[in-house]
C-alpha cells in the first residue's frame, strides 16, 4: 500500500508535467506565442530582463515555477533558459520570503498558521539541508514554503541557497521540455520525463532518509513510510 501511494504522488507530478506539455503544444501551435514572441524571444537583453522580472514576480505571487521554467526553455533554449529560469525562481523565492517577513506576518499566520509551525519545526535546526530536501520533492507548494519560511525563525541565506540548489533538477527538466517544443520534441520531452521520474524518486528517498522524525506533511509521510500508519 505504501508503495502504491508513493507512485500516486509521483504520478501526480507526472500529470502536471503532461499538462505542461499539452499546454506547450497548444501554445506553440494555436495561441500564436504572442507575448513571448513579442516581448521576450529574440529581444536580446531587453527580453531577458522582461522574462526575469515578470517570472520573478509571477513565482513570488504563486505561479508555478515549472511553468516559468518551461517558458524560459521555449524563449531562450536550454542553456540560457536554464540560467534565466533559475534566476527567476530564486528571485521569486526571495521576494515572497521578504514580503512575508517584513509586511505580511499577520496575514500569513492567519491563513497558514499550522503550515508555518510545521515548516518552521522542519527547517529551523538545519535550514540548508532540510530546505534542499523540500525543494527536491515533486509535490508541495513553493509559495507556502516561501511564505512560511519568511515568518518563521529560519535564517535567510541557508534557506535561499538550499532552495536554489533544490530547484536545479525540476528547472532543468521543464526548461528541457520547453526547448523541445520547437526542437527535437520527442527526444527532449522523453528525456525530460525520465529525468523528472529520477529526480522525484531521489527527492522521496532523501526526504524519507534524512527527515529524522520531523514531518513536513502527514500525507506525504504516510505515503513514504513502509508502514502507512507510522506517520499518524
Top keywords for this entry?
mainly alpha, 11 helices, globular, disordered C terminus
Describe this structure in words.
The chain has helices spanning about 1-30, 35-40, 45-60, 65-75, 80-100, 105-125, 125-135, 140-150, 155-180, 185-210, 220-225. With about 230 residues, it is mainly alpha-helical. It has one domain. Helix 9 (about 155-180) runs antiparallel to helix 10 (about 185-210). The two termini are about 15 Å apart.
Number of discrete domains? 1
Quickly give the structural class. mainly alpha
Strands, total number: 0
- Counting DSSP H or I runs of 4 or more residues, the number of helices is 11
| 3D shape | globular
User: What quaternary form is this?
Assistant: single chain
User: pLDDT under 50 segments (min length 5)?
Assistant: 26-32, 226-232
Sheet-strand content, in percent, reads under 5%
Largest sheet: none
Distance between the termini: 15 Å
| SSE ordering | HHHHHHHHHHH
Helix share bin? over 70%
The Cα radius of gyration reads 18 Å
The average pLDDT score comes to 79
Compact description:
The chain starts with a helix and ends in an 8-residue tail after the last helix.
Note the topology.
Blueprint: H1 2-29, H2 34-40, H3 44-60, H4 65-76, H5 78-102, H6 105-123, H7 127-136, H8 142-151, H9 156-179, H10 185-210, H11 218-224
Helix pairs in contact: 1-10, 1-11, 3-4, 3-5, 4-5, 4-9, 5-8, 5-9, 6-8, 7-9, 7-10, 9-10
Amino acid at each position: 500500500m505504501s508503495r502504491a501511494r508513493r507512485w500516486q504522488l509521483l504520478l501526480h507530478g507526472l500529470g502536471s508535467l503532461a499538462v505542461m506539455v499539452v499546454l506547450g503544444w497548444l501554445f506553440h501551435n494555436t495561441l500564436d506565442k504572442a507575448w513571448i514572441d513579442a516581448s521576450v524571444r529574440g529581444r536580446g537583453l531587453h527580453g531577458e530582463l522582461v522574462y526575469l522580472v515578470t517570472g520573478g514576480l509571477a513565482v513570488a505571487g504563486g505561479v508555478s515555477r515549472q511553468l516559468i521554467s518551461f517558458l524560459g526553455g521555449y524563449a531562450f533554449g536550454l542553456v540560457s533558459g536554464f540560467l534565466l529560469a533559475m534566476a527567476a525562481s530564486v528571485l521569486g523565492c526571495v521576494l515572497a520570503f521578504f514580503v512575508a517577513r517584513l509586511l505580511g506576518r499577520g496575514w500569513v499566520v492567519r491563513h497558514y498558521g499550522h503550515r508555518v509551525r510545521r515548516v518552521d519545526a522542519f527547517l529551523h535546526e538545519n535550514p540548508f539541508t532540510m530546505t534542499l530536501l523540500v525543494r527536491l520533492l515533486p509535490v508541495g507548494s513553493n509559495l507556502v514554503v516561501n511564505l512560511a519560511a519568511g515568518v518563521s525563525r529560519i535564517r535567510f541565506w541557508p534557506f535561499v541557497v538550499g532552495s536554489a540548489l533544490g530547484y536545479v533538477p525540476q528547472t532543468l527538466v521543464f526548461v528541457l521540455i520547453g526547448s523541445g517544443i520547437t526542437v527535437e520534441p520527442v527526444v527532449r520531452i522523453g528525456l525530460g520525463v525520465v529525468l523528472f521520474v529520477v529526480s522525484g524518486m531521489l527527492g522521496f528517498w532523501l526526504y524519507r532518509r534524512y527527515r529524522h522524525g520531523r514531518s513536513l506533511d502527514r500525507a506525504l509521510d504516510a505515503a513514504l513510510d513502509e508502514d502507512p500508519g507510522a506517520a499518524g
